[in-house]
Design brief:
The chain is elongated. The protein is built from 14 helices and no strands. The longest helix has 37 residues. It is mainly α and 306 residues long.
Length: 306
């Protein structure tokens, strides 16, 4: 009986995996997380982003400085005790100024990328799902807007309506959704012929339900990847605006303003006004690009590391 029982249990239990056979499918998010962690540059980039978020937003609570009242007597103080990175032409502590400028850069980068992503996702999903004349009109609109120099448009609009964190975020976001729209449209064109979308159509799902319940959620991978690159581009746009003198208004400041004001100081030997803020700008943009590259490889199954 024991032999018969053991044989029956052996027949009912699944056979052990043979050589080269997987134990079972791993969850998609686990594969994605494992692929992301394997990318060392991505881990470094994420650590840098977290470090700068803490540095810019929590740093001023630890390192207190006066960034509103000038102190000409303390102008151009070299790095040393009391001022680790020295002071600028107005006597502002440079380390505290980098923190405040970093807040503006990160806020505008994140907020403008959110605005651009929302607009681009909706427009791209509508164009890809509806198709026909709607798709043609929307894509021709995107082509026309892409032919216009974005920097000139942002310069004119920001000069006319003023510059603040909210206004610049809306302006940059309102003119940066074009790439997102094309990416989402291409993804929706491939998704709308999938079996689950055809099944939803057969069951009577409306276009709104198809777009918000099926197409956009399944295109989020492309959207999330684009957000990281969009943040980096927005920070660069803000730096260019500030360098050209169209950045934030006093007392707000951004890294581009600081570089513009310190450009002549470099020739006079005040290196601490240029190099620290310039390094911060390059490192933050590079970190977002590292994370974006890793997310792209993680989301795309064909590029995912096995």
């Amino acid at each position: 009986m024991a032999i018969i029982g053991g044989a029956s249990e052996g027949l009912l239990s699944p056979p052990p995996p043979e050589g080269g056979q997987l134990q079972g499918p791993r969850a998609g998010w686990r594969l994605a997380l494992a692929s992301f962690v394997e990318n060392k540059l991505a881990v470094v980039g994420l650590a840098i982003i977290i470090l700068f978020l803490a540095f810019c937003f929590l740093g001023p609570y630890v390192y207190h400085t006066n960034q509103t009242q000038t102190n000409v007597i303390a102008a151009y103080t070299s790095p040393g005790k009391g001022h680790p990175l020295g002071t600028d032409a107005d006597g502002f502590d440079e380390l505290g100024r980098i923190m405040i400028g970093g807040q503006s850069a990160l806020e505008i980068g994140l907020f403008s990328s959110l605005v651009a992503t929302v607009i681009g996702t909706v427009v791209g999903a509508i164009a890809g799902l509806v198709g026909g004349i709607v798709d043609a009109v929307l894509m021709r609109l995107v082509d026309v807007l892409l032919s216009i120099p974005l920097l000139f448009v942002i310069l004119i609009v920001s000069a006319h309506y003023g510059a603040s964190v909210v206004k610049l975020s809306l302006i940059i976001g309102a003119f940066s959704w074009l790439v997102s729209a094309r990416l989402v449209r291409g993804e929706v064109l491939t998704l709308r012929v999938r079996d689950f979308v055809l099944a939803a159509r057969t069951m009577g799902a409306t276009k709104n339900r198809l777009m918000y319940k099926h197409l956009i959620p399944n295109a989020l991978g492309v959207v999330i990847v684009n957000i990281t690159f969009q943040v980096a581009d927005s920070i660069n746009f803000l730096a260019v605006l500030g360098f050209l003198g169209f950045g934030l208004n006093y007392p707000q400041v951004d890294w581009g303003d600081m570089l513009s004001n310190a450009l002549n100081s470099l020739q006079d030997g005040y290196w601490w006004l240029v190099y620290p803020v310039g390094i911060c700008l390059v490192v933050v943009v590079m970190a977002f690009n590292f994370v974006g590259d890793a997310l792209r490889d993680t989301v795309d199954v064909r590029l995912r590391r096995r």
